[in-house]
Automatic annotation (TrEMBL):
It comes from the Bacteria. This is GTPase Era. InterPro entries: G_ERA_dom, GTP-bd, GTPase_Era-like, KH_dom-like_a/b, KH_dom_type_2, KH_sf_prok-type, P-loop_NTPase, Small_GTP-bd. Monomer.
Length: 302
């Protein structure tokens, strides 16, 4: 039996559906999905099996115009993921079409795309008419010589299997990179932190989600098979701490419960989750915080 294995990078603008597609391909939730943009910070790898092929998805942060150090590190991680992958898939939202952001990404692909396999996936096709889809497909393929174009709905699953089968056939021959039962190469501590950060992002509004981070401080396996997980939510100001805690601790309690339930379901066992909120005004400029997120602090320099 000839096996295949390799890395597939998903790139695109924030909110193009990269995390949703990763989770759909893998069949489990390995990347946080919210209605807010720029939520994926680390290059999360989800592992999917298709026939004799093992597809390792690199779910990169959305490509956007960086303003802060964290933004620059995220964009560098996205392009780094594309440059390191065997195949790159550009996701474009059908209803948004060729935005200035997509134009910038196409320019970037022109630089790194030579000799590489790059496919196009037009996502959220259920939201536009077929004539608009056809003209968008033509326009994008005129801008770049894509190896293949797919029409998909990552949320509903339309067209995803065809993309998955094509990717499997394009990967280089070789042994699998991960054990058969492994779905992600992120440490459990980071997956747990991402789950809590998703709940914070969904619960809180405006800018605050981008000015906080979550770290799993300790993970203790207990004799009864359960796990005790202690996490710290770092915020930048005292006022932010009050927002995260909520009236009489109601917000942090709801976030803790939602995160605990999801983590318990993900692990298939009981989890005791304890959250603390701490103010660290400068966390955006601390190398240690970037390492915890799987980013390179040096990539954030202006």
């Amino acid at each position: 039996m000839t096996t295949r294995a390799g890395f597939v990078a998903l790139i695109g603008e924030p909110n193009a559906g990269k995390s949703t597609l990763t989770n759909r391909m893998v069949g489990a939730k390995v990347s946080i999905v919210t209605h807010k943009v720029q939520t994926t910070r680390a290059r999360i790898r989800g592992v999917a099996l298709e026939g004799d092929a093992q597809i390792v998805f690199v779910d990169t942060p959305g490509l956007f115009e960086p303003k802060r150090r964290l933004d620059r590190a995220m964009v560098a991680a996205a392009w780094g993921g594309a440059a390191d992958a065997d195949i790159t898939v550009l996701l474009v939202e059908a209803q948004r079409g060729i935005t200035p952001g997509v134009e910038t990404i196409l320019e970037g692909l022109a630089e790194i795309g030579k000799g590489r396999t790059i496919a196009l996936a037009i996502n959220k096709i259920d939201r536009v008419k077929s004539e608009a889809l056809l003209s968008l497909t033509e326009a994008l393929n005129e801008r770049f010589d894509f190896a293949q174009t797919f029409m998909i709905s990552a949320e509903k699953g339309h067209g995803v299997q065809a993309l998955r089968e094509w990717l499997a056939g394009q990967l280089p021959e070789g042994p699998w990179l991960y054990p058969e039962d492994q779905i992600a190469d992120l440490p459990l501590r980071m997956i747990a932190a991402e789950m809590t950060r998703e709940k914070l992002t969904l619960r809180l509004h405006q800018e605050l989600p981008y000015q906080l981070t979550v770290e799993t401080e300790s993970w203790e396996e207990r004799k009864d098979g359960s796990a005790r997980v202690d996490q710290i939510i770092y915020v930048m100001r005292d006022g932010h701490k009050g927002i995260v805690l909520g009236n009489k601790g109601s917000t942090i309690k709801a976030i803790s419960q939602a995160s605990r339930e999801e983590l318990s379901e993900f692990l298939g066992r009981k989890v005791h989750l304890f959250l603390q909120v701490k103010v660290r005004e400068n966390w955006l400029n601390e190398a240690e915080r970037y390492s915890e997120m799987g980013l390179d602090f040096r990539d954030g320099k202006a």
